[in-house]
């Protein structure tokens, strides 16, 4: 006998599907856990040798995109 996950009615959360999603996310995190040191090492190497310049902040990007002179009101 198999248990089916009920179809969402759209009126509220589907707790069975939420639980299934959390379990899958936990399993993926556990599988990828041994790879974190490799990711960290790769990121450090990339930052040391391949990063061209510091990352720009959003405010700096926005300021650089603004026009230098206000538009004329004709």
UniProtKB/TrEMBL annotation:
Q: Which organism is it from?
A: Natronococcus amylolyticus DSM 10524
Which Pfam families does this chain map to?
Answer: DUF7535
Show the stretches that span the lipid bilayer. 20-46
Recorded protein name is: Uncharacterized protein
Keywords on this record?
Membrane, Transmembrane, Transmembrane helix
